Amino acid sequence: MKNSGVSIIISTFNGASRLEDTLVALSRLNVSQIPFIELILVDNASTDNTFLFSQELWHKLGTPFPINCLHEETPGKLNAQEKGLKYAKGEFILICDDDNVLFPEYLQIGYKILTDNPRIGVLGGQGIALSTVPLPDWFQNYSYYFACAPQAPATGNVNPTRNVVYGAGMWFRKSAYDKAKQLGFNFILASRTGKKLTTGAEDSELCWAIRFQNFEVWYIEELKFFHHIPPNRLTKDYKIKLIQGMQTNGPYGNLYIRVWKNEISEKVKLFWLKECFYTLFYIFMLPFNHRINNKKVDLKRGVHNITVFLRDRSKYDSKINKLIEYKEKCVKYNVLENL
What residue ranges define each of the domains in the chain, with the CATH number in brackets? Predict the structure, then answer.
């Protein structure tokens, strides 16, 4: 049964070498006047001693609040996160990655905002990059991809600046997640698996699932955490692979905003074919479009999207239709009217 407290969820793959700073920071959080708090650590098919290491370290730290260590053998961050959510008892969920170091007041700030503002369904904070080597010159321009940047000009609703917040340090309401699943919401994008850099899936989709229920998604500039970035992630090669990984989901990533804006509002059939022809025409017209600076990037993206349309075909239409069904159910059952 959920209560008005907080469940912190860490999903980790081979995280024994990264978790010490994260767990120490959690042990130092200000937890005063929060009625319930628990830590759920999900070991996602690790091959190191993550599970035992976490339990022993938390015990050495004095077990500041209960820890529940779980195993999830199916690789993929989404699988691990959903395992944690299955066991979470708190109404407010805080996602903490295994390389995040939350500031001491992170819990107090997020908890107060969510309890005082029932219209807010999701909160995002600001990661601050930490590394044992100097950050490269290009890093600032790509810091958002590394979850190390402000997510809006100032505290407030991220819309229309953006539609989602990144998953590191993200808060959301468990009741909104439960309602999304009850109404038939299904994740449709690829999730990060092990060292595979496909990303930008479960956090963005979760934001959309809750936004469709008419909740707001906010950025809070006071919510800050350090984000450890190892030297091997600060190379140009890694940057390119990371961005390509985010683009792997291709046209699927745009479906949410298109359905949200009613650009796609009725059930579709052979929509993948229409999209394929449209993209082919776009590629054909690229040489004549003088408003696009990097036509090579757009060409690669277009070719990739066509590959997705041809590969998925009916599955693409099915995912659109299920998303439309979910939106219709959200309109019919307005969660906020029942608060």
Answer: 3-248 (3.90.550.10), 253-338 (no CATH)
